[in-house]
Every structure is written in structure tokens, then in C-alpha cells.
């Protein structure tokens, strides 16, 4: 377990090598760049006009725009020609690796690829325009439907002696009801002929011919009925529908043609993915350049690097370019980014720690201590050998099958669950659970046998109190390990008094109280303990508890100068024993989740066996077994993961770990599809 020592790095190189050096650093991903100051360059901090920063806003914006266009082109291609899936294992494959030569070869085709991107975006725009015409044409066709039996233009105004009113009325009318309604509204209009073109529940389309002498009265009567002229072209409806059908066919033809044109680029998908990453990296690089100072012939880079990576940076930079690389130790009070390094056993748990918080200044890396208990706690909560074997074999298969393509973060996740699977298998064997009581159920139901998967140690479903006691023992070890880590940190930082007051006193206080508690008849009866603690030991433990309690009372508020406040804070510190009790009770979840896994699995087995010893019963058992066990595995594995993290974060870290360290953000390839070796 280690927080890697960090170095400040200062690089001075020729300006002509800037592009190559920054690209090399980006591929290495080992340096977190900082903004150099004039004081670092000149010693005085005064601007003498020699050093300046390059304005890269325009170039960076262009690269980001190109990457965005390429993303759009890829989305267009994926929607038109969906990519073939890589199967279930595809989700574990990481970015495709490229050598530097392959990268340069593909980068040389960037202009051609961008031409293809522009072409795809243009084709998509044309296709969208054609697709946008179709709803409009269909709407016009729908509006024409009520008028298709009308063989005059819809803007027909009448003849020399007549006036035509072509339009619609709200609601549905028959010819008789329409004449009647019109007569009531225009009783003096006599020379009027009304024809109904079509009618439905929402409207009635009509053509009214009136003598010019009655035109005004007719129009007033129709308006009072809600008359409205059609918002359609002034052509014969059937002729207009023919034009619409022709335009629809043309639009669909354009869509089909454009789709076919887009499909031709299906084999260029990887080129587009590359160009997305290419311009993303260039945008990141130009974002960095904007913060660097340079003169006419040289440029400068400052940042942080882990001490272990300095040799690698030297070999890649100083061995190939004319430059000077200097390393220095950060100032004692300087906040530096944190990089963790752990052995293969603990490294998978590192992500769990990082998700909580990185170690603050002077703190230890808790990954190793957390890993000692993490696998154990997860395994006890799931506690089934069958489930453990599935997790172990599944993660092992993925790790072997995708070892060359998997990203480091995904690999660590798989390694974490591999370790959890091994632990689950172990505790399942110890507790006698293999898919619940599947062995006994199958043997009894289908073979009339008494064969069973017996526990090596004990069965928690029949001896829950024993399991509860064992859970508390694990909890005590976990909490005391956390308190011990606090003591180690105090000694490491030279805080000897804090070690005595906040660690030794609490070890003695809690430890002696536990001895006294275990000696009571109530605890012996509850946990069936055949244990006799000599009276002198109990008496000594009692006095140690009193003495350490008094020590906590007197020192718990030592930061206060006021004696009254000091005693009150000390009394509150002694009251902290209640938090130890609640923390210890939290470990009862080991019993609860372990029992839940085994009992639910056994219930599914019992349900499946209700079909009896018959072919139909066997089929029923298999179906219920598969569905039930898979559901139980996912639900309880999720519960084990969540509650294991909870015990680590709250109960364990709460005893010694504050966090607050700065995350290390190296200048690297922030790409989606490719990574350059």
C-alpha cells in the first residue's frame, strides 16, 4: 500500500520539437501539466517581453468543431447502417491499439476523411429535408380528401350572373338541415343553390351558387353559420392530388437514393472513429499549448510526475530531442496530486478507495487494509459456493478472453469480482450452501437419496446465533484494524500524544469492556459460549476500562483551554462508546444478507420441486431453478457489493481516514475508440 512520491518536472525544449514532445507526453500519460509562471522562468516574475503565450483559441475551436462534425457523421452512419455487435464480450473490449506508425499513416488521411464527413453531413441534411416534405405533402393530401368529388377549381368565383361560395361549415349537415339553417340566417336570399360535396362529424364541405343580387345576403348568412374558405391551392382537387402523389414519390425516391449513398460509407466507420479521436487529442493538446510560455526558439513545460515514471519520461524525451528535463521535490506544504500503487491482491480494491476519497496530506493509502476485509465481507454476505463459482469462472473467462483488449479500469473491476467470487465460494463451502439446498432437493425429489452438500464448519440457517457471533468477531477485528491504522498515522506524523489519547486509550477502553461483556451470563447464554474468564481477569479489565475511560474524559477535549468545556467535551468523547456499539451492530448485516441468499435460493428450489418426480416435474424444476437462481444471484450480489462498501466507508474508514487528496489528472489520450502505444 503506497502513495507514490511525486516530483515536480520542468522541461525546456526547442520550439520546433514542441508538437512531437507534447504528442509523446500525451501518449505516455504520466505528467499532470501545470501553468508555468514567469517567476519560474525569469526568477523575478517581471514580464521582459521575451516569453509569451500562444493564442490557440481559434485552432482549438476548429479541432473541437471537426470532432463534433465527425461525431455527427458517425451517428448518421450508425443510424442508417447499424454496426454489427461484438456479442456479449464486446462490452468488455476497450479501445483499439495503434502503433505510432499506424497513427501517423491514418493521420495523413485526415483531409480525405473530413471530406467524407462533410459529404455524410450534407447527404443527411438533404435526406432530412426530403423526409420533412413528406408530412407536409401528406397533410395537403388529407386536406384534399373531402373535395375529391368536386370537379371545379377551389378558387372558382362564379359566372357572369352568379357568385360561387366554396368552403366548409363546422358540424355535420344534411341537405335539408342545411337549407333550413341557411333560410333562418338569410331568409331574403332566394336565388341560391346549395350542394354538399362531403360531410363528416367535424365539417360539411359545400358549394353555394347565388345570383349576384343575393350575393351579399348569402355571404352574411353563410358567415353566421361559420363558413370558411379552404386554405388549399386554387386548382381542381383531383389534379392537385396527382401532383402531391408525384411529389411524394419523388421525395421517397430521393430518400432511398440518399440512404443508399450514405450506406456506401459503411466500411469507412473506423476512419471516422479515428478522426474523432484525432481531433479530440489535437484540441486537448492546443488547450495545453495555450498555457505554456515560449520564446522565439524554446518552450517550457511544468507539471507533476510520479517518481517511478521519471526514467520512462527521460528515455522518451531526452533520448530523442534536444531538451533539458529537471526534477525537484515539492515544497513540504505543497498540495500535490495523489497516485496510488498496490500489489496485485489489493490493486482491484483501489477503485473502491478512489471512489470514496484519495488520501489527504500525511495519510496512508488504506487500499491494502481495505482489501484484507473487502473480499471476506463480500463472500460472507453472498455465501453460496454455486454463486461463487459462477462469478469466479465468469470473470476468469472474461479476463482471459479479453486480456489484450480490455481497459485497465475494466480489468481491475473484473479482478475485484474474481476475488469476491473466490471468497464467496470459500464461505459457501464453509457454510454448506450450493445454490441454497439444491443438492439435497434434487437428490430427494428425483433420486430418493439423502445426499446433501454439507457444511465444512456450520450452517447459518440452523445456527444463526453462531453466525451472528462470528459476524461480531469480524466486526471487532475490522474496527480495531481501523483504529490501529489511525495509531500508525499518528506515529508516522510524530503526534505521539494523539496516539496515546485517541488510540491507546480507546483500545484499552473498548477491549476491556468487551472482556467484561463476554464474561456476563447473558452473553454466554445468548451465544452458547462455554468460556470461563477468571475473576481476576474480569476485575483487571474493569479497572482498565475505568482508567482508560477517565483518560478519555480528561483528554477528549484537550484542545479547549477552559476546564469546564474541556471536561464537557471529554464527557462527550466518552459517550462515543455508543457509536462503537452501533458500528459493531452494523456487522449483523453479514448474518442478514448471508441468510437471505441461502433461504431465498432454497425457496426457489422448493418451488421447483413441487412438480414431483416426473418428466414434467423435471422441466418445471429446471425452469424455476434457472430463473429463480439468476434473480437471486443478481439481487444478492448487488446487495453484497453495496453493503460491503458501506462497512468499508462508514465503519472502517470512519475510524481513521479523512481523505481529501487531489486527484491526478495526467495529460493523456482522452479518446473513445483508439489509443496509441
Explain what you see.
- The protein is an alpha+beta fold.
- Among the domains are: 155-229, Alpha-Beta Plaits, CATH 3.30.70.2750; 347-428 and 438-454 and 465-655, no CATH class.
- 58% of the residues lie in helices and 11% in strands.
- The protein has helices at residues 18-28, 38-42, 57-80, 100-107, 110-144, 175-185, 215-224, 237-263, 269-289, 310-317, 350-356, 367-382, 385-401, 408-431, 438-447, 464-492, 496-518, 521-527, 535-555, 563-574, 577-586, 589-608, 615-652; strands at residues 2-3, 6-14, 31-34, 52-53, 96-98, 162-170, 192-199, 203-211, 293-294, 298-306, 323-328, 337-338, 340-341, 662-663, 674-676.
- It has a 4-stranded antiparallel sheet with strand order 3-10-2-11, with helices on one face.
- Strand 7 and strand 8 form a beta hairpin.
- Helix 6 crosses helix 7 (215-224), helix 12 crosses helix 14 and helix 19 crosses helix 20 (563-574).
- It is extended, with a radius of gyration of 40 Å.
Helix-strand layout with pairing:
Elements: E1 2-3, E2 6-14, H1 18-28, E3 31-34, H2 38-42, E4 52-53, H3 57-80, E5 96-98, H4 100-107, H5 110-144, E6 162-170, H6 175-185, E7 192-199, E8 203-211, H7 215-224, H8 237-263, H9 269-289, E9 293-294, E10 298-306, H10 310-317, E11 323-328, E12 337-338, E13 340-341, H11 350-356, H12 367-382, H13 385-401, H14 408-431, H15 438-447, H16 464-492, H17 496-518, H18 521-527, H19 535-555, H20 563-574, H21 577-586, H22 589-608, H23 615-652, E14 662-663, E15 674-676
Helix pairs in contact: 3-5, 3-9, 5-8, 6-7, 12-14, 12-22, 12-23, 13-14, 16-17, 16-21, 16-22, 17-19, 19-20, 22-23
Amino acid at each position: 500500500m503506497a502513495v507514490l512520491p511525486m516530483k515536480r518536472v520542468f522541461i525546456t525544449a526547442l520550439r520546433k520539437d514542441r508538437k512531437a514532445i507534447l504528442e509523446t507526453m500525451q501518449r505516455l500519460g504520466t505528467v499532470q501539466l501545470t501553468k508555468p509562471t514567469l517567476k519560474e522562468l525569469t526568477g523575478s516574475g517581471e514580464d521582459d517581453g521575451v516569453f509569451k503565450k500562444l493564442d490557440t483559441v481559434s485552432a482549438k475551436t476548429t479541432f473541437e468543431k471537426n470532432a463534433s462534425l465527425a461525431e455527427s457523421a458517425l451517428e448518421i452512419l450508425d443510424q442508417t447502417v447499424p454496426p454489427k455487435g461484438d456479442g456479449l464480450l464486446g462490452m468488455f473490449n476497450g479501445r483499439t491499439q495503434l502503433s505510432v506508425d499506424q497513427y501517423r499513416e491514418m493521420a495523413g488521411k485526415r483531409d480525405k476523411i473530413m471530406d467524407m464527413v462533410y459529404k455524410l453531413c450534407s447527404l443527411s441534411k438533404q435526406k432530412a429535408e426530403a423526409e420533412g416534405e413528406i408530412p407536409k405533402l401528406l397533410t395537403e393530401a388529407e386536406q384534399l380528401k373531402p373535395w375529391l368529388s368536386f370537379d371545379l377549381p377551389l378558387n372558382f368565383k362564379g359566372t357572369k350572373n352568379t357568385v360561387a361560395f366554396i368552403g366548409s361549415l363546422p358540424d355535420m349537415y344534411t341537405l335539408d338541415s342545411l337549407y333550413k339553417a341557411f333560410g333562418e340566417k338569410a331568409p331574403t336570399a332566394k336565388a341560391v343553390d346549395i350542394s354538399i360535396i362531403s360531410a363528416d362529424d367535424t365539417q360539411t364541405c359545400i358549394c353555394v351558387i347565388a345570383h349576384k343580387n343575393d350575393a351579399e345576403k348569402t355571404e352574411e348568412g353563410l358567415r353566421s353559420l361559420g363558413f370558411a374558405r379552404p386554405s388549399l391551392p386554387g386548382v381542381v382537387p383531383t389534379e392537385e392530388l396527382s401532383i402531391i402523389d408525384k411529389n411524394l414519390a419523388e421525395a421517397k425516391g430521393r430518400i432511398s437514393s440518399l440512404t443508399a449513398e450514405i450506406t456506401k460509407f459503411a466500411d469507412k466507420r473506423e476512419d471516422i472513429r479515428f478522426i474523432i479521436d484525432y481531433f479530440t487529442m489535437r484540441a486537448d493538446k492546443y488547450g495545453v499549448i495555450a498555457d505554456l510560455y515560449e520564446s522565439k526558439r524554446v518552450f517550457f513545460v511544468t507539471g507533476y510526475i510520479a517518481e517511478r515514471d521519471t526514467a520512462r519520461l527521460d528515455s522518451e524525451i531526452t533520448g530523442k530531442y534536444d531538451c533539458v528535463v529537471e526534477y525537484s521535490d515539492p515544497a513540504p506544504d505543497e498540495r500535490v496530486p495523489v497516485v496510488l500503487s498496490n500489489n496485485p491482491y489489493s490493486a482491484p480494491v483501489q477503485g473502491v478507495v478512489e471512489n470514496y476519497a484519495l488520501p489527504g496530506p500525511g495519510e496512508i493509502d488504506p487500499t491494502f487494509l481495505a482489501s484484507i476485509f473487502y473480499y471476506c465481507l463480500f463472500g460472507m454476505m453472498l455465501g453460496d459456493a454455486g454463486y461463487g463459482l459462477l462469478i469466479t469462472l465468469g470473470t476468469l473467462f472474461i479476463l482471459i478472453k479479453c486480456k489484450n483488449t480490455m481497459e485497465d479500469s475494466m480489468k481491475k473491476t473484473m479482478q475485484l469480482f474474481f476475488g469476491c467470487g473466490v471468497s464467496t465460494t470459500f464461505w459457501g463451502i464453509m457454510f454448506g450452501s450450493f445454490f441454497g439446498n439444491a443438492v439435497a432437493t434434487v437428490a430427494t425429489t428425483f433420486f430418493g437419496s439423502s445426499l446433501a452438500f454439507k457444511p465444512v464448519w456450520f450452517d447459518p440457517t440452523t445456527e444463526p446465533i453462531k453466525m451472528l457471533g462470528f459476524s461480531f468477531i469480524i466486526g471487532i477485528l475490522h474496527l480495531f484494524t481501523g483504529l490501529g491504522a489511525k495509531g500508525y498515522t499518528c506515529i508516522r506524523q510524530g503526534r505521539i500524544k494523539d496516539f496515546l489519547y485517541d488510540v491507546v486509550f480507546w483500545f484499552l477502553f473498548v477491549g476491556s469492556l468487551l472482556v467484561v461483556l463476554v464474561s456476563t451470563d447473558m452473553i454466554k447464554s445468548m451465544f452458547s459460549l462455554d468460556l470461563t474468564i477468571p475473576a481476576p481477569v474480569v476485575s483487571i479489565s474493569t479497572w482498565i476500562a475505568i482508567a482508560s475511560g477517565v483518560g478519555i474524559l480528561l483528554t477528549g477535549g484537550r484542545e479547549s483551554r477552559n476546564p469546564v468545556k474541556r471536561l464537557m467535551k471529554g464527557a462527550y468523547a466518552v459517550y462515543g462508546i455508543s457509536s462503537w456499539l452501533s458500528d459493531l451492530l452494523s456487522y449483523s448485516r453479514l448474518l442478514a444478507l448471508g441468510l437471505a441468499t441461502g433461504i431465498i435460493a432454497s425457496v426457489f428450489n422448493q418451488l421447483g420441486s413441487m412438480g414431483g418426480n416426473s418428466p414434467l416435474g423435471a422441466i418445471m424444476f429446471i425452469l424455476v431453478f434457472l430463473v429463480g437462481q439468476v434473480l437471486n444471484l443478481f439481487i444478492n450480489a448487488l446487495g453484497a457489493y453495496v453493503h460491503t462498501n458501506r462497512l468499508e466507508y462508514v465503519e472502517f474508514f470512519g475510524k481513521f481516514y479523512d481523505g481529501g487528496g487531489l486527484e491526478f489528472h495526467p495529460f493523456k489520450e482522452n479518446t473513445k475508440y483508439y489509443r496509441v502505444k
